[in-house]
Fold this sequence. Notes:
By secondary structure, the chain is mainly alpha-helical. It has helices at 3-24, 31-52, 69-91; strands spanning 59-62, 65-68.
Amino acid sequence: xxxxxxxxxxxxxxxxxxxxxxxxxxxxxxxxxxxxxxxxxxxxxxxxxxxxxxxxxxxxxxxxxxxxxxxxxxxxxxxxxxxxxxxxxxxxxx
Length: 94
């Protein structure tokens, strides 16, 4: 994978992570955190889709590496919601 392809993949993950955080109604951090949340969300979303037998749709291929946009957004929202619940439970604040 080239540097440009990797940067495009990071940008797509950041956008998906940011949208997922917005849907969950909780902000975990800045741009780097959005990238991480986007990648974690892609894994969670694909795992849920595989368990439920749902198809992959709206997948973007960046230099042969598929990135599931919809499942990344759904997984990011789920991950952010779980982290927000855990943070509120352990710290007692929002």
